[in-house]
Amino acid sequence: MKPSPLTLFCLVAIAAGIAFDKGIWQIPPAWNPFAPLVVSDPVTPITRWKLKALSGDGEACREALNTAPDIAYTPLADYTPAAGCPLENVVRLAHTQVRFNASFVASCPLALAWTMYERHELQPLARRIFGEPVSRVQHYGSFACRNIYHRENARRSEHATASALDVAAFQLADGRRIGVLEDWGDGGDLGRFLEEAQAGACRYFGTTLGPDYNAAHANHFHLGMRGVSFCR
Q1: What is the DSSP letter of 171?
Q2: What is the pTM of this model?
């Protein structure tokens, strides 16, 4: 007698369970939601979930950060600046494989999202278009205790929790500078690099905003952790 679909499903499920138990079949770490996040792991649909999960686990987030090459950061204790806006699970990021115009305070998941974006998207893109890696990044800061657009009755900005970074320009190893304000939409390699850099960021950050969103973002990319792949 031919087994029913339900019976076949149960047999497959039992076989899979035995395989997992015996170690015969293992989920690759990048696809396993319970495996620690490693910066060099391939990016999968599980990656964003892992980044979100680390927002409440500072120790696990810092362990993931430590898997990034050439990173320098200082863990910060939870604290509330004089202006308000309590900060939790934050670090001060000095540099990664790129140098910044200034160190900045970032939520640990933001710092981790940046390192993954840099490794898997930004540097491969720069090498593909220009044959040079990005060596420096100019930013306008991450933490600012304020509401969105400084409006009195608006909700708090992502910057109020140090969960967003505003990136203004990239500098290649050969010294060439690519600025969002100057080079967005230029029709050449500089503009193409910026467009693809923004599109690639959408895989790691919950909110990615650029010049096409509104005039307030004409000179920078807003890379934030709030939301799920809001890209404009």
Answers
A1: E
A2: 0.85
